[in-house]
Amino acid sequence: MIEFLKNQAKKVEGLGYSGLETFKGSPYASCVRETGQNSMDARLGGGPVKIEIFLHDVKRQDVPFADELAEVVDACLRENTDERTQQHFESAKKIVSEDIWKILEISDSNTTGLTGPLSDMHSVFNVLVKGDGVTNKLDPTSAGSYGIGKNAAIAVSSLQCVIYSTAFDDNGSQISAVQGRLRTISHQRNGEFYGAEGFWGGKDFSAISDPLEVPGWMRRTVVGTSIFSVGFRQESGWEDRVKLAVLCNFVSAIDAGTVEFNVNNTLITKSTLDSHIFSPELESSAINFDLKPQLMVARNLLVNLRSDTSVERRIDDAFLGSFILRVLPRQGMPKSVHIIRNGIYIANNFKKFAQPMASFNGTSDFIATLCPSPDERGENASRILKSLENPAHDAFEPERIVDETKRDQIRLAIKRVVEKIRGLLKEIAKVDEGGTLQLDDLSEVLARNGGAGSSKVEASDEPDPLTLKYSEARKSISREPQPGIGANGNSIQKGGGDRAKLGGRQSNKGKGPGLGSRGAVPLEDVIFTMDPKRGSRARRLHFTSLAAGTAKISLHVSGLYGLEPLEVTSSSQGVIESGAIIVNLNAGERVSIDVEIDEPYFGGVEVQAYPAAGGTEAGAEGRE
Q: Is the pTM above the cut of 0.90?
């Protein structure tokens, strides 16, 4: 039966429940993340946790509480509510009247299940099913911490109804327990006032312990837990959004063999990880759902985890604990550090500690991860980081520490760790000597005396760039091929620019084209100069192509979160397409192009060249 808590105080409760609202902004990702980390926290033995996510079509007659839930929905519709609430229950009324109900199952195995005893209100089962804002996870380094993650599964239910089914071992005997929880609004039925929260199960809000008393789709036959979101929000592309959530949140744990996923018969394991994360089809879905930046981060993290040229360093702090910093110096990487805890991606900054980690001057390109070390000192670091995580587990916030003295100690410790990170990055991803540096106030003198440009450039009309040009330093950076990226390291070149203020460019203009979507066209001796006679937006681009074909040449600048496009509005050669130049190239031919950019910009520029869509492939070196 469905039972609701009595509402003797006639308290008004609406749909805006904070525990749910936390996850409604990204329901699929939140559901995958929260249920996944709960399963990983309950890992049993040495094998991987196996998580299966399936959508079922269940006949209404096989939902034992269907008629009762329909009565509750009707009672809520009779309440005096706002338009949003009215629309919610009108939609719910249609769903509960359907002959087929959509029910999403998220189940795990190789876990302990939701352990009892069922009579203990503090047991794992009762805290998860009935608790609010409380967790009984004994491990202080566990992934969960607030006891509200359970609401993520409710957030993907159009009926805000979830069924929990578990089997656990009790001194050699397998115990089963099934109970449901639903969230509506305060309402009246049969002359009684009820609160917003109800439970389905046995009498007096108890769980059903006899598996034969529930329909087959609810039963557990092996130890573990199944969570059923009743009336699943089946939106277009939901499967791809779930897969993206799996890859973006658990790439480290999957690669380590700690967890495996099965999404509607699509296996995502250590052995299949590459085929999914580098899938062009999934990348198209990521673009459609505005998730490509997250996917690109996951790809880069996997490359770092797999690369033999990645460098690991230990960071010790007397108060905070110990971490492992893993760095892959590689051209084209976004120069960012990503924090992973318990194999789950958390964030790429300590912004709330005034440590945004968005700029790393004095280093070459790199990708890095920061994880608590796998020892006692690392457990201390993990425990402190856990205490700083917000409920969505995507940021660290010092104000969550009540003790002011401890909070100040953590602030100082985080700053010390970040300083050590920066020092190690300058050591590991250093810019080697061998490039040339030219200063603004000497540019005219150098130009009059022939300049200090590359000896390979013979054209007299190519003035030297007025900023850093590290032509030789790139040789010291790892050239190890990266999945989905052309093998020739010269395909992306740093060009010069007029070194002055970076004024005017906004970080919200969007990212440049992602690296590795297809083979790159190899260029060398790239020079990008200002032409003051033609105005502040006029530039001249010089380069030599090492391959022949039709290429798409685009310009990029460093922004707060990575490379951003510098749009070209006119060009003396080729045609303009979406701010880039489409031009035919011949192998070994020196090219000079006069261009205009969309707004004045003074700073270093990165030039990227790829085969144009529909154009001729640019030689073997430019293909994947």
A: no
